[in-house]
Specification:
This protein is α/β, with parallel strands linked by helices. The protein has 11 helices and 14 strands. The protein folds into 2 domains: about 10-225, Aspartate Aminotransferase, domain 2 (3-Layer(aba) Sandwich), CATH 3.40.640; about 230-340, Aspartate Aminotransferase, domain 1, CATH 3.90.1150.10. The chain is about 35% helix and about 15% strand. The strands form 3 sheets. A 7-stranded mixed β-sheet has the order 1-9-8-5-4-2-3, with helices on both faces. It has a 4-stranded antiparallel β-sheet with strand order 10-12-14-13. Strands 7-6-11 form a 3-stranded antiparallel β-sheet, with no helix packed on it.
Length: about 350
Amino acid sequence: MSIPVFCPYIRRKDMDSVLNCLVTDSIGPGEYADRFIKSLKESLNFDFGFALRSPFTALCYAFEALGLKEGDTILVSALAPAYYARAAAEKGIGLAIADCAENSLQPDLECIKQAIAASAVKPSAYILFEPLGIIPDLSGFEETGLRIVEDITQGIKAYRGELKAGSIGGLAMLGLENRGIVTTGGGAVLFAKARREGMVLRNIAEEVPAELRMTDYNAALGWAQLRGLEMNLETRRTIYQAFGASIARTKHHLLAVEGEGEAGFWAFPVALESGVKDVCAYAKKKEIDTELAFEDSLAGKGLVPEGQCPRARSLALRSILFPLHERIGKAGVQKIERLLGTLP
């Protein structure tokens, strides 16, 4: 049986919270959702947040919290998730798309300025997606005047220098879909770092209908996963280091944090110096699954205008993910180590 790239799970002992939720009179939004938010607040140190049924919905409410209206524009990276474009289109909001900097997964200040200059409408905010949990260098960013919504879906607990995931923007969101480091089986949390933005979210939260809030059933799963987060991240960190040593012996490159810090251990990402098809076929022969790292991004889905963002397009075409999760096991780790060290 092949080793999958993503394999969300909880231990049997953690199933109690989910089973207890199932036997209650109600599994809609309620006690478990409140408990989940409280635990997440303690973990990420934010002022206020609420849980929703999808990242798409969370992003739409982030637009509302920013006061964005039809005709406004937001800045995004070409490697941001493709659903950003659909959420913006639904609200009548335009996109200014920034390319990655040289040898980076993120736009630098120069890339951001170029995207702003090329936009017909000056952007009002930057939806900062952190691919693979890599926090960017934001030196000089304040001169743009853009407000930030930070998407930490792939990098909960990541950091760069003194910057921690969830601490950069006034607002932040954490997607909790099935591939997340923490998953509720579907959903997201929108939260505010400080009291001022927290008050805005509190007012919005009062008007969110139950049909858009995360159910207790999903929240119970997330709450159980949060309790094991630090242990799971330590396991992933150990595996990541072993895989990094293997890929360092090849011509290929690990997509890692630049400078001092630690990226999110979402998956093991490699930028290839040879054909993607050949490497994926080789891995499949060894019973190890792979996926394109940015297949679901704006660049990966062909949503970036022709001729724009060449560096992001290149990364989307040649970057792949290998498994990095708690279910791999010792034998699986050794198997993937051998594979990475012998990639064609």
